[in-house]
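hiii, so i know i said id send this last week but things got crazy w the move. better late than never?? heres the sequnce for the chain we talked about at the cafe, plus the structure i predicted for it. fair warning i was half asleep when i ran it
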Amino acid sequence: MAAKRLDAIALLKADHRKVEDLFAKFESAKGADRKAKLAQEICTELTVHTTIEEEIFYPACKGKIEEDLLAEAYVEHDGAKVLLGEIEVGNLDGEFYDAKVKVLSEQIKHHVKEEERRAEGMFAEAKAAGLPMDDLGDRMAARKKELLAEIKKSGLQAPQTRTFIGSPLKHNTGAGAKDTAIVAAMALR
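okay and structure toks below
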């Protein structure tokens, strides 16, 4: 049986609901193996979702919706990508691992709210602008399938940011520890 065809907004909203469910499962999960599996699913889903939005949906919206919405969405994605990179390479037993997943969840919740607001959200504006939602949905579904196949074959790659310039950061490993410089951009490529 063929998969049900979704327009762009329906596809993106379905992704939102799936990720919300994964975050809820992570929060209530017991056991390191279960949490690790859920964290991997969250990272995969969000990586694919941000990619199809940035490669297909957002460019289609450019010049058709409020530019501030689009700029903020790119920055929100980059903030999420920093945490995705941290979660992907992090240690489940690490002191801040669960906190990073929780903060990512909160960031995504805010981002979804901005996109899905009824009258003035990105999706409402895109729909009102008359974007070809069926065509965009088909293109995003095809790209999503490609990305999932790539991830299955080669694993998740380091996230790439569009708006973050990779300024040098200091990492403090604890009280009295010597600070060491790290470059965020190296982890994000």
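btw The first strand starts at residue 168 and ends at 171. thought thatd interest u
miss u guys!!
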